[in-house]
Protein 1
Amino acid sequence: MDAHVSDEARALARDCELVDLHIDTMIPPRLWGYDPLVRHRGAILGGRFFGHLDVPRLQEGGVSGAMWSLTTNPFRTARRRYVMFERNLARLRDLVARSGGALAFARDAAEYRRVRAAGAHAVLAAIQGANALEAVADLGPAAVPDDLLTRVTLVHLTNAVYGATSSPFSWLRRDRGLSAAGRHLVEQLDAARVFVDLAHIHPQAFWHAVEAHDSSLPLIVTHTGVRGVKQHWRNLDDDQLRAIADTGGVVGVMYQTSFLSRKGGPRDGAMVVEHMEHIVKVAGEDAVALGTDYDGAITPPRDLRDGTSYPRLVQHMIDRGWPTERIRKALGLNFLRSFEMLRPG
Ligand SMILES: [Zn+2]
């Protein structure tokens, strides 16, 4: 395995704004009491599924901010989903409070800059699976106190009252679009200036959401691959990429090997950069971003197995001839531009 990382790549990862649009590091604490404040030896379970990240490794990897996902378990009742969401949000608040200033919430772009100036990692609170809020649908995102919520992924791996998933579970549902409740939710999120995240959603529901959404606000897809490189139900086609870019939003490429790797293609982290390059080609270099999905039960490419390897991704970009400015945009500046549009502060 060639895991060469130059001083240039390390310096770039350390010095630039690096925002990971999707981390699931609040899942392992629920599963087995994993403490994200403690440094874990890399590669628990060979680097598969969980244990990719903790706060020391985020710092070591140069990660200046991330969308910390609170992921919904769809197999609970609507009421229980909300109770569990509240509990998980309390856990996230507790983690930030216990971090001794290493972590701080960023509700908007101005707060992000303040957090960064203080040398902390910016925590952007996010929900994966809007059915966490189904029991409080009247309030929508306003149910989350302190304006903490920055983004909601409308659906996850299962169908929801809001619409159909892109996963094979969509076959359980005759209507693969966005429901009236889903359209209403998009309007609520727009009104509250919370990112509407169209990762995981069925293509039909995707286009309904684009229609329902206020086109003057940026849409995002936080973690995905692209069909232009690999045909897969989890990935976006070129029209979808352009639709996100047209709103001033960004598309984050994720690290799940099975969504990314193509026949005859690279076997290491270069596969991530291939997907990013397709986004650049189709939708322009202002639309590309990173959303690893670390700790989200994924198997990352072999040289990106844990959160210390962000500089290794930068090395792949350098090796493929990316100009420095494009690297900076993909790692954080593009997203921060969208954040500034939606939530200037
Ligand atoms: Zn996901």
Note: The chain has one domain: 7-342.
Protein 2
Amino acid sequence: MATALITGASSGLGAEYARQLAPAYDLILVARNEARMQSLAQSFSSGRKVKIIAADLTKAVDVERVELAVAEATDLQLLVNNAGLGTVGKFSVLDAVTEKNQVLLNVNALVALSHAALGNFSRNRPAQAALINVASVAGFQPTPFSAVYAASKAFVKTFSEGIAEEVRGDGVIVQCLCPGLTRTEFQERGHIDVSSLPDFAWMSAEEVVRISLANLSPGSGVVLVPGLLNQAMALASSAVPSALNARLMAGVMKSALNVRA
Ligand SMILES: NC(=O)c1ccc[n+]([C@@H]2O[C@H](COP(=O)([O-])OP(=O)(O)OC[C@H]3O[C@@H](n4cnc5c(N)ncnc54)[C@H](OP(=O)(O)O)[C@@H]3O)[C@@H](O)[C@H]2O)c1
């Protein structure tokens, strides 16, 4: 039976991946909030198996536990590295522990679990094998006042593009999903003021995940930016020199997210 493991499955995009994959996959759900994952699992009517792993992916010992689960999962066909955290504010005054945790969660855990999944795929050679790494449009340019988050997502994008080329001939699909503003708990958790942002700038988690899964095929390309507005922003960022991008983004962060410098 095909198995998919999803990190950050207790809310937002991760819970939505679980909902949309539940009819076709046995699931392994990973996040800290066990009760929320239990209640999500109970809402599925597919009769597929759901295993829940409560883990804090900023903690090395928990990452090792999940690495083992990925390495040993029977018929693992899909890993969704989705768990992530972002903050907004001036780096030097933001809480140091939370800034370091962003690197541990968004980067270290994702690298560890990607390695375990590719090892599983190479040993077991499942009929289909795919890795989805969730980055962000924030990864397309330096972003003052969200410097660690944007840098962590730039890492995810570059890393995913690199390993995608390495496994191109092995029948493994690598997708780097780069969403823009998506209605989840992300902004609330990061204490991000979105009151000035217009409605049209947002996508739903349901739409973003549907686009991700619809494009999980060998010819679809590695980097996937859902939504026309996000695609236009990513294209504009790629065309502008980095230093100018940083200057422009500082202005955007101050006006759109009400960040105080
Ligand atoms: N929403 C957006 O606007 C947006 C835009 C671009 C990219 N993204 C990316 O999308 C991904 C999913 O975020 P989301 O929008 O769905 O946000 P969310 O609703 O806040 O979900 C984040 C998920 O990550 C889990 N998580 C957080 N810290 C964790 C930790 N230390 N260990 C294990 N799991 C942890 C949370 O579960 P627990 O609290 O139960 O651990 C939750 O399930 C992230 O990588 C984010 O960077 C989001």
Note: The mean pLDDT is 96.
